[in-house]
Amino acid sequence: LNAIFSPYYNAKEEIDGVVVVLQDVTEQKKLDDMRKEFVANVSHELRTPLTTVKSYTETLMEGAIDDRETAMEFLAIVDSEADRMAFLVRDLLQLSRFDNKQVRLSISEIDMNEFLETMVRQNKIHAEAKHQELTFEPYEKEVIIFGDRDRVGQVVNNIVTNAIKYSLDQAKIKIYISEDDTYYKISVKDTGMGISREDLPRIFERFYRVDKARSRAMGGTGLGLAIAKEIMESHGGRLTAESEYGKGTTMTMWFPKERPVLEYEQEDAGA
Ligand code: ADP
């Protein structure tokens, strides 16, 4: 609570009392704290690769450059740290476009059976590298959703990539479609490490990772699901997760069956 005191004067300009205004600042403080934490996170995430780049460059300049093999090895590290910073900036920019309501969606009708078939074909190579089985069972009937193909593809890719990353070799990853009265649901179910009950509600937060070191080592920025959630909400849908620790996770994208009226839709969309 915030209290503001001001004197109350009577007709003779004498102080007659005090007016106290009480303001509830809990909500504002929470937002403030979140913003501070976000800035601290961004700084840390940028500083980590920068420190690595700096130390390898210094070692190179101190003489390591004369040994070609070592030099190449160090430069490869510098190169991948630069990639990491670029990914982080790309993700931050995309989030800030959502925050500033500058996102423009180009909505068209997407045949999900066809779309997911293609997505699976593109991701198969990553699953096969870990001897995982990635499958899609086409739905028994035609499923048309209203979406921005690139953005919807981004969400599917993010979820499938996570399923592959956070599952061990030999895991099974299954994509399937279901529906209720108002939504088509695209689910990605894995038999991976799962997420504990305490972590589960937090995985959509910016920079939240169950295991920071592991996620970073696998190239994650910790922003993927936060962006995926924004994308789903901008489509009038949502993104949910169910998981059992040690057993596996199911991520579900919900798309409204009726064509939604969208805040971010491009004027000429569908034309
Ligand atoms: P990251 O870049 O770290 O993968 P995400 O926002 O995509 O960031 O995911 C946030 C965190 O949620 C991950 O770091 C991971 O701990 C957890 N997570 C996401 N998907 C899965 C999954 N299929 N199985 C287990 N954990 C997952």
UniProtKB/TrEMBL annotation:
The chain holds residues 326 to 596 of 596 of the full protein. It is found in: Membrane. Residues 41-259 form the Histidine kinase domain. This is histidine kinase. It comes from the Bacteria.
